[in-house]
What does this fold into?
Amino acid sequence: MKSARAAVLPPEPAGSQVEAAYWRLRQEIICGNLAPSAKLRIDLLRQSYGFGASALREALSRLVSDGLAEAEAQRGYWVAPISREELNDITMARQSVEVEALRQAIRFGTLEWESGIVAASHSLERVETSMVKPTPETVAGWEHANRQFHMALIAGCPSRWLLRFTASLYDQWQRYRHRTVLRRAIPRRGLSADHKELIRLTLAREADAACAALSRHIEDTARKAEAAIFESIPIKAGPNSARRKSGKA
It folds into this structure.
């Protein structure tokens, strides 16, 4: 039964519903609460998240455009599947796009950009040194701090498209990280050697060395994710996978 206060409140604007549904489902897909290849049924999503059917359909359409969901006429929506091939593709794309963004950031970045890197690294270090138990909250806190650190490294890049593509690729990569042992909030003693090297080389404006270090870091974490996922966990194919294998559109 609705409360008297709820009954007199105006309905939430449709745009706000769509935005809220989009960001909630997006996060649920990235963190793995909505598993790869899972069917996204509108009626169940309404019950679970409380959004209207129209808002959910529009949000799902946007997620299809992001590559986080798939749709098929008369069959509905699914969470996009994962695969070894896609992980390798994301890795190579990050090594091209994110590394170039870092190169341009080093060339054009200001003192404010440098300060942003220091602040983001300090926040990440604080999170890592405080991690005790592998709870969803600590994992989410570390993931957020780690993403902010990577985005701070490239924030000095003047190309908005490079920044946008880097953020999108990082979100796709997080879908894989969340399915690996990397999810566990293992207690740390501070920043990793990779991150310390990236900070040192970037702030020293040593572009070639910093870009090489970032490329190695992306490659190393991808190989760990690949081994953790595909050598132990069978991956269920999505609704369009058979068509991909056959080469049909």
In short: Strands lie at 39-40, 69-72, 76-79. Residues 11-80 form a domain with the Arc Repressor Mutant, subunit A fold (CATH 1.10.10.10).
